Amino acid sequence: MMPKWNPVEMADWQIAEAAEPHLRPIADVAAGLGLSADEVIPYGKVIAKIDAAAVLARLGDSGRRARYIDVTAITPTPLGEGKTTTTLGLVQGLGRLGKRAMGTVRQPSGGPTFNIKGSAAGGGLAQVVPLAPLSLGLTGDIDAITNANNLAMTALTARMQHERNYDDARLAQSNLSRLSIDPARVQMRWAIDFCAQALRNVEIGRGGPMDGFTMDSGFYITVASEVMAVLAMASDLADLRARLGKIIVAYSTSGRPVTTADLEVDGAMAAWLMRAVNPTLMQTLEGQPMLVHAGPFANIAIGQSSVIADKLGSLLTDYLVTESGFASDIGFEKFWNIKCRASGLRPDAVVIVATVRALKLHGGGPAVQAGRPLDAVYTGEALGLLEKGCENLLAHIGIVKRSGIRPVVCLNHFHTDTAAEHALVRKIAEAAGARFAVSSHWLKGGEGAAELAEAVIAACDEPNTFAFLSELDEPISSRIATIVREVYGGDGVSFSDEAAAKLAAYEADPVTARLPVCMAKTQYSLSHDAKLAGRPKGWTLPVRDVLLYQGAGFVVPVAGDIKLMPGTASNAAFRRIDIDTATGKVRGLF
């Protein structure tokens, strides 16, 4: 049992650092899951990768399946809801009740870690540890995805240069045929795992004929790369290899898709990802196992831990807790209609995380900014504002209920909350047909999550009627409209001329016509407009583009002004991160 630290007096990184001498050896964590030594690939004493192929081959036909719980949230605000912290707290709470439990979470991206949001390790007494390795590259998966993505771009731009400079006879000497790539229809971009807005739009190939093909290009953050989505969606190494070859990097001048297989780079990309296909095994502050794999953003990507990690977890424990990115309209909707299709797993319970503070903001409370003092309404009782803000919570309860599951609302407790505020949210949630629990896992760890764990156990024992929102034989445009009306609460959808033309082409192809829909829109509102908090009404979703992620296996409607490369703020976290040269420890992560 870990010592008890006070998160009111200690920063997250200080708690994580103090915990390191008390961590269980990763071999013991693995043995507790029933894994053999041959199925564990150590990365030091407290981190390992799991040989996914070996475990799935041994247990895949065993008939075992854990109770499966997804953690989602209300619409996020700058105040935060603590969704990852709740995921960790729930795993610890289930452990305190004597249940065999583990979790699957996404690997933190360097973008938010060094920017505003911070690492995705949880917080207080509900964390994945050790924090510094988790936040700073871990076992190299995101680096491998970056390299695989950029290898494809290297192959593409080199091929374009060679086709410009060489005639057909010279190309044939290298066993190359002319692909006639259209520089105006390059779909792929370069990747870097930082919020580097200066790289959103660049010109490459400047110089002479030997300096590459001159054209407009750009970067997206690594976690928005289709290669990341492929890792998240793949069921095993063979499936990963097959999906990589289907990635469309560009189109020819005649409109034919040009894939990584056409460039003969898909095999080399798979070689970069050989180790990344295996999830990383870590632990909570209280010693429960955690699998870290794939991710993270749900506003511009799939926003889920991997299918492989969840399949492994379902075979290794009795309660498996996973987390979906951002709110239920984004992360849970993709978990529900994309990930569950791919994995074959069905949830037994869904947790919606909310806080009193965030609900007040949705009720019309004053604007907030990270690092600045909060207005008194967020630290004092304001029942009218809270009740108005619960309209956002009700929208998310409705979304989860639409999937056929009765949700568990978790009110993530803050010390400034009052009993009357808790009672009001409980009354509203239960009147809407949800279960309700207050959890103080940030302050008390698993002990503070006991009420939540009991509510989740009860929810898992309750039959549900889980069903997908739409069938894949419905037109893509119809399925997009259904998401807008029945999940977001909008009146309908409008398509730009470019988006409409692409949709028509996708719907005419019998393969792409049946791909799931992976929406890209702001996470800060149920609508496309980040300024519309609460439960906006009377709006139409504008779709400006529709991308085809053929390797990952879905189409991506791009709504509003959402960007695939976030920006770094003026008061970024990197200003406070450093090392202690005497101990070699990292300071300032959060």
Question: What would you say about this model in short?
Answer:
The protein is of the alpha/beta class and 590 residues long. 35% of the residues lie in helices and 18% in strands.
Give the helix/strand layout.
Blueprint: H1 12-19, H2 26-32, E1 40-42, E2 48-50, H3 52-59, E3 67-73, H4 83-96, E4 101-105, H5 110-113, E5 122-123, E6 126-129, H6 131-135, H7 141-165, H8 168-173, E7 181-186, E8 190-192, E9 202-204, E10 215-217, E11 219-221, H9 226-233, H10 237-244, E12 248-252, E13 257-259, H11 266-272, E14 280-284, E15 289-292, H12 307-316, E16 319-323, H13 328-343, E17 349-354, H14 356-362, H15 383-402, E18 408-412, H16 419-431, E19 435-439, H17 441-444, H18 450-460, H19 476-488, E20 492-495, H20 497-508, E21 540-549, E22 554-559, E23 578-580, E24 585-587
Parallel strand pairs: 3-16, 3-17, 4-15, 4-16, 8-11, 17-18, 18-19, 20-21
Antiparallel strand pairs: 1-2, 2-14, 5-6, 6-14, 7-12, 9-10, 12-13, 14-15, 21-22, 23-24
Q: Give the C-alpha Rg.
A: 24 Å
- Beta-strand segment tally: 24
Structural class by sheet pairing and helices:
alpha/beta
* N- and C-termini, Cα separation: 23 Å
Low-confidence stretches: none
Characterize the main sheet: 12 strands, mixed
Number of helices: 20
Principal-axis shape equals globular
Q: Helix amount, in percent?
A: 25-40%
Strand content: 15-25%
Mean pLDDT: 94
